[in-house]
Task: inverse folding
DNA sequence: TTGACATATTCCCATATAGGAATATAATGA
DNA sequence: TCATTATATTCCTATATGGGAATATGTCAA
């Protein structure tokens, strides 16, 4: 088969840098499509199409007011990512360096049982 | 243009569920390709090809010992994701304790739903 | 009503997969 | 040397883009 659809899940959806940029832009405020077109300097169809992907995975929510469509982020939908990262945090504590040390320690132990 | 290469960055690389599974499997120990083939029940070329993507974005590191190629996770390469997520933490609370509570709540809810 | 504005969708195309199968490369041991 | 084992790469194909251009849909205002 080919690659997964970008709308398969949140991980796929945020794989595209432009969609991450949209999410960042929407972090603090609700914005219309044309607000986003101005802010990002992309074509209007490009903005609409990336928003459509984010909408499908529910990372953004649309609120229509006449001609204007206001988009806002749905941060709770990012939880799967946070949870996925969380499984690594339980090994590393607060810093990446601690995780490194932890992994080096246990992997050294495992290696004493090595095959060669 | 077409879609970004999966090796474009860490975000693209982990968009594929199988690659996330490999990373999870490598969290606690170094493993050879055949270890991973056995653990995941995928074909050997499939494992090797997904590892190649992870290797290219430096999420895993290879250590060759004779015929065996040991792979280990490079956790510091997950930092871009952690940092990107950090900006949203304020929406659900920044501590892992709160995340734990959230997860426990969900789990409890799921369990009680199953009983009905 | 009608033109202008706001947004979404469709068409087209070049590109990059993911997966299966076959094959290549490399290291080992008898 | 040669068969076996371990891993990587190549070939093939169906599929899904992301971007540009054109167009459709929806809404408002004069």
Result:
């Amino acid at each position: 088969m080919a690659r997964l659809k970008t709308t398969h899940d949140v991980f796929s959806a945020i794989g595209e840098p432009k969609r991450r940029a949209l999410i960042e832009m929407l972090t603090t405020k609700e914005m219309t499509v044309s607000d986003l077109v101005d802010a990002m300097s992309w074509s209007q169809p490009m903005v609409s199409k990336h928003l459509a992907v984010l909408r499908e995975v529910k990372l953004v929510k649309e609120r229509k007011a006449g001609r204007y469509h206001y988009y806002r982020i749905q941060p709770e939908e990012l939880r799967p990512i946070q949870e996925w990262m969380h499984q690594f945090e339980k090994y590393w504590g607060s810093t990446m360096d601690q995780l490194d040390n932890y992994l080096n320690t246990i992997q050294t132990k495992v290696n004493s049982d090595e095959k060669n």
